[in-house]
Each structure stands twice: as C-alpha cells, then as structure tokens.
Amino acid sequence: MRILKLIIKNSLRHKTRTILTILGISIAVFAFGLLRTVVTAWNAGVEASAANRLITRQAVSFIFPLPLAYRDQILNIPGVEDVTYANWFQGVYIDKTQFFARLAVDAETIFEVYPEFLISNEEYQTFLKERNSCIIGEEIAKQYNLKIGDLMTIEGDIYPGDWQFVVRGIYKPRDKTTDATQMLFHWDYLNERMKEIGSGRINEVGWYVVKISDPDKSASISEQIDALFQNSRAETKTESERAFQQGFVAASSAILTSINVISFVIIGIIMLVLGNTMIMSARERTREYAVFKTIGFSAKHMVGLILGESLFISAIGAGLGLFLSFPIVEGVSQAIPKGMFPVFELEPITLIFAVSSAILIGVAASVFPIMKALRTSIVDGLRFIG
Amino acid sequence: MKIPLKYTIKNFTSRKLTTFITIFGVALVVFVFTAVLMMAYGIQKTLKATGQPDNVIVTRKAANGEISSLVDGETQDIIRTLPHIAVDNNGKQIISKEPVVIINLEKLSSGVSNVTVRGVSDVVLELRPQVKIIEGQMFNFGLRELIVGSGVTGRFKGAAIGDEVKFAGDSWKIVGIFDSDGSGFDSEMWGDSQALLNAFNRGSTISSMTLKLDDVANFGDFKKQFEFDRRLQQFEPKIEQQYFEEQSEFMAAFIRIIGLVITVIFSVGAMIGAAITMYAAVANRTVEIGTLRALGFTGWSVRFVFLIESLVIAISGGLIGIFLASFLQFFNISTLNFQSFSELAFSFSLSPWIIFLSLAFAIGMGIIGGYAPARRAAKLNIVDALRSV
C-alpha cells in the first residue's frame, strides 16, 4: 500500500503534466471509439443479415430488373418458404440530400420475410387496403415528424412523375441492428402507374428476397435458383443476404481500410504521449531511484513503482475517454443523415478494445524507463544532475 | 534585447529523445491531415477534369446521377432543335446520346464492384478531345465491342484487350484501351450507344445527352431557350465540367468531414504532447532562465525563446508529415462513388494550397501547445529560479 501512496504522490508532483497526459490519453481513447463506431456502422447491414434469407438479383448488376414471372418458379424450389420482392424507387423527397431507402415492395409478403420489422396488425390492415399508402420506419417518422395520415410527396427520378403516399403505418425495429429508416409502399401501385402511362417497364422487379427453411442449404438453393434462369435474357445471381451486404461494404474498402489504419495510428499516438511522459518523469527521478535502491528497495519495487504510475495515469485517461465517448458518438449520430448509417452506436466490444489498448500501452510505455532505472548503478544514479 | 538563436538550437541537442518523440507526434498528425485533404482533392480533381467547359450535359432534374436519369426520344428531338449547338466538318451536330448503366466486374484485389458502361455516339471523340485511344483501336459502331478506360483495365479481371464481357445475354469484346488524362472517364467502359440501347431493350431512352456549344459564351442564351420550352421542364442543362464536379461533392465532403474530425481530435493530442515537452523543458532549465533574467533579458525575451522552440518542433514535424504524405501521390486508389454508384479511380493529389494549410495547421499547433509553458517560463520569479535545484 505504501507503493500506491508513492505512486499517487508522484503523479501529483507535476499536476499540469499528469493532467495533460491523462487528457491526451482520453482524447485518443474516444477518438478510437468514434472511428471504430464508423467502421461498425458501415458493416451494420452485414450484421443485420438473417441467415435464412437469400437475395436474388440480376446477374449483370443491381440496376437491371428481373421479370415478375420468376417469383413462382423460385417459390417452387424445395426448401424455399416464401419469396418477396422490392424495387428501388428512391426519387427526391424534400431535396436531393434526404437519403433513406424508398422501396416499392410486395405488401402481402414483405413482413413475413422481414419479421424484424414490427408493425401492428391494425396499421398493416389499413396499409393493405389503401393503394397509395406507405409504411415508414420509426427513425424516419422521428426525423421528419411524420404521423399516421401524413402525406409524403416524392418526385420520381427512376420512375418519373409526381408521387404521393399516405403514411398508414410506422414499423419498429426488433433488434438493435435492424434498419428503421426505410419507406415501403405497394409495388402494385407502382406497376399500375407504369401501365397507365404506357411505359414498357411493367411487371419488373428490382430484386427478390427468398426465405429458406434451412440456413445450411443456402449455398445449394442459391445455385438452384440461378440454374433456373441461366442463359435467359435476365440471368440471376443469388447469394446469402450476408454476402450481398458484404459486397456493398467491400466496394468502399479503400475508405474503410484507411479508417482502420488511422485507428491504429491513434493507438500509436497514445503510446507516444504516455511514453514521453514516463521517460521524462523517470529521468527526473534518477537520483531518487538510486536513493531507493540504496535504502534497500529491490528491483521488484522499482518495477512496481514505475509501472504503477504508468498504469495509474493510463487507467484514469482511459476511464475519462470512455466517459466522453458516449456523448460524442451520440452527437455525431445526430449530425449525419439517418439513412446513411441506420445503426450508429458504440458497441461494447469497441469500448473493451479501447480500454485494453490504453492499459496495454500503460505497460509498454513504462518498459524503457524501467529498464533504465534497473540498469543504472546506484553510484551513477546518485551523481546524476539532469 | 533578444536572446540569440544559437541558444535555441543548442537546446535541441540536449534532450534528443523526448524532442524527437514530440516532433514525430506532430508529424503523424500533419500526415493524416494532409493525406485527408489530398484524398478529397484527388477525387474532386479527377471528376472536375472529366468535363469540358464548352460541353453541355442534359439530365433529368430529379436525378442524383446519370444512373437514375431518363431522357426519352421525344425530349432528345426537342433538344436537338435548340440553338448554339456546334457542328462538325460534315455539318452534323456534335451530340452524344448516352445510356449509362452499371455492370458488376470482379476486382483483381478481391470482391466485386460496379463499373460504369456508357453508350456513346460516333462524334464522341470530337466532343471529348481529352480522350485518346492508347492501345488497340476504337470500337466499331454497330458491333458489340467496347473500349475500356485505363483505370478499369488495371483493376478488374477480364478487362484487357481481347477479353469478353458478358451482359444483356451477349458477349462484348474489348478492342481498345483509352485514357482521358486522369478524369472520371478512366473508370468507365464505352460502347456504341445504339447497340447498348438495343441490348438492354431500352428503346430510345438514354440517361444523358451531351452536346458541344459553338461558343462557351452562348451557354447563357442556350439555357434561357432551354428553360423557356415547357416540354423540357423536367430536365436541366449544365456545363459538363460543373456537372461532374457536383458529382464529386458528396464523396469529397464526406471524406473531408470524417478527416477533419479525426485530425482536429488528433491535433489536440499532438498539442498536448508538445505542451508536455515544453513544460518539461521549462522545468529543467529553471536555473538557466533565472540566470538569463538576472542578466537583464526581459520576460518577453524568455517567452519568445520558448515559443520559438515550440514552433521549431511544430514546423519540423509539419515538414516531415507533409514530406511523407507527398509519397501518397504514387498511390492510385479506387472506391465506390456513392453518388454515381460506381467505381471511381483517383489518386492522392497535392496542391500548394494543401501544403500551405498543413503548415499553418502545424504552426497553429506549435503556438497553442507552446503558449502556456512559455508564459510560465516568463513569469518565473528570478530569485526562486536561481535557487532551484
């Protein structure tokens, strides 16, 4: 216990320096937390994937449509429980910067295949009956202050024209990873409008979502689906929802890699700041350590002293950094548009990683001063002026 | 009276390790700061170079990018009757009708990404003089042939001359590689507009229409005539250069914001590091400072000395950081451009303005980090200072 007292007193000797070091470490800890949260948020779609869902899209690329007729053929494959479909509608809502998913979906089956979108039966029934109604996610309702009965006006781009939808339901996310920022309306409504204006783009589906009964069969069922439509005008590519989402993440891999690299640079900076302090404080106390050794403190005690001080500072810094992480992540999440990163929050694993790094560095930063203190002979130490 | 510079320089050699660590910390922060600015600038430069100042591109107003823009045959015919469209030697209007789609190709590194395929009309090389065929030959109009940009050929599988790309139920042969002087077109594949429209069953509906103005000065009038026609209400004309610059805005802003948040946070860390080092310097030289003051040097001179030392650390770190960042220019990276939803190849670009900003940033860190310690040094009581051990 005497050592602990010594440690605390030593740290308080240069209050300014200790406080600055603690601040430096805390900043690095919450910066690390923020960056990793960005990376995690990017991967959120992957995490939200269900093992029993497959995505079937046009083989050439996502932007080409598939015929509606494919649905029944897919449904006939053994192991397939249900099939729903969606078209990417997007359009402009309010202005071009309001980004969130706006999709035309098969009203009958969408909530069967996506059970994590929780909707009350009452709202769902109203939605079913009204052709131009829509259901929006909780986060969108919050951000744009929309209630049941409100009108959403969208100017179409891919599907040109002025479109109006009535909000008839607000879905809640079942899990923490569920995307609560989508706007869903009737695919039938879209199709009818296309027929009315005499467009050639009728009975077209953007992609199919296939619910299977056994996740282990996902690879074989994917192959079976693609085999059905091989050599046709619209060949398909079917993959698990997880692989599909990962494809999107991989496309931005350059940016993500940079962010990851920077996260580790931050750890390096913590090491520098703390190491710097420890080296300076150890140098100042060369004579003291020599005195300790003369009195009879063993190497064990020296190590404990220096290591203890380093850990003490890094632990407080880490704690402070942790404390600051929460409001900062919350602040950033408010600042970015909801549709970009539907799930943006601190994961426990990030916190654990940040704190353990800080503590590991506390140990690493003290290695050099400890070695110096142990190696310096008592006589040289007593002679040291600085 | 000013304390001579020699004093400052000598001090650096006395505490080498801690000084070096601090300089390195500053260098790291400046490196990240510069790299982020270089990345954002690289994207902007690439996309800005994509457009010519005397070309006009017409797209649908509501569309965020060419991918979601639809221009039907009727509208195209109306636009062709507008004034100020340049003609070539044969009297033909220089207009390119372009359907733009995205296909998936496998990356050489790993994974799959989106590549833009653009259908172009036969006057395209006159429309875009910056585009040169560097290998192979131009594709034959009417056939299923493609030329690929230099940014695609090095990055994706099956994108070399002689390879065949399968889409729309047919195989398209790559017959040439083109280079567009570091612009966004380097990340695209081009083919005959009509052949692509047929293959994708799009009738005559294209994504965008690009035309050359007979004179840049006539754009104002062109735009007025355009907006005057009620049938063209849902579309808008933009100078090509401006259009593509706007396409880069989102990405550039995104990178800059993340980058600046990171660097501001880092810089606080670096300033703290600098402050710690300077405080230690002051603490160690208390006797010296007392002596200097006793000799008659004013508090301001002392403060000045420590600020200079702090600045030298900061500037050294800054220069090292910028120097290291400049090597990034040798790297080409590509990423998904959210706005166009396809892969964009670009490189880190350094500009004098970026160098200036980074240096200013480093100097700012030096001044802020060194201010408080310098002040403490200046305010030391002379007698106590002389007495301290």
Could you list some keywords that capture this structure?
heterodimer, A: 386 residues, alpha+beta, 11-stranded mixed beta sheet, 17% strand, B: 389 residues, 4-stranded antiparallel beta sheet, 13 strands, elongated
| Major sheet summary line of chain B | 7 strands, mixed
Number of strands of chain B: 13
Helices and strands of chain B: which structural class? alpha+beta
What order do the helices and strands of chain B follow? HHEHEEEHEEHEEEHEHEHHHEEHH
| Total domains of chain A | 2
Q: How many structural domains does the protein architecture of chain B include?
A: 2
Mean pLDDT of chain B: 85
Q: Name the helicity range of chain A.
A: 55-70%
Oligomer: heterodimer
Strand content of chain B: 15-25%
Structural commentary:
The complex is a heterodimer of chains A (386) and B (389). By secondary structure, chain A is of the alpha+beta class. Chain A has 2 domains: 2-45 and 253-383, no CATH class; 60-234, no CATH class. Chain A is 56% helix and 17% strand. Chain A contains 15 helices and 13 strands. Chain A has helices at 2-13, 15-42, 44-47, 70-75, 110-113, 121-129, 138-144, 187-196, 218-228, 241-251, 253-284, 286-295, 299-335, 348-375, 378-383; strands at 53-58, 66-67, 80-88, 92-93, 102-105, 117-118, 133-137, 151-156, 161-173, 183-186, 204-205, 207-212, 236-240. In chain A, the strands form 2 sheets. In chain A, strands 1, 3, 4, 5, 6, 7, 8, 9, 10, 12 and 13 form an 11-stranded mixed sheet that branches. A two-stranded antiparallel sheet of chain A has the order 2-11. In chain A, 43% of the residues are buried. The model of chain A has no long low-confidence stretch (mean pLDDT 86). Chain B has 389 residues and is an alpha+beta fold. Chain B folds into 2 domains: 5-48 and 247-387, no CATH class; 62-233, no CATH class. Chain B is 50% helix and 20% strand. Chain B contains 12 helices and 13 strands. Chain B has helices spanning 5-14, 16-49, 73-80, 124-127, 150-153, 193-199, 219-228, 240-284, 286-295, 299-326, 352-378, 382-387; strands at residues 55-60, 95-98, 100-106, 112-120, 132-136, 145-149, 164-167, 170-179, 188-192, 208-212, 235-239, 332-337, 342-347. In chain B, the strands form 3 sheets. In chain B, strands 3, 4, 5, 6, 7, 8 and 9 form a 7-stranded mixed sheet that branches. Chain B has a 4-stranded antiparallel sheet with strand order 2-10-1-11. Chain B has a two-stranded antiparallel sheet with strand order 12-13. In chain B, β3 (100-106) and β4 form a beta hairpin. In chain B, α2 (16-49) runs antiparallel to α11 (352-378) and α10 (299-326) packs antiparallel against α11 (352-378). Chain B is elongated and about 95 Å long. Chain B starts with a helix and ends with a helix.
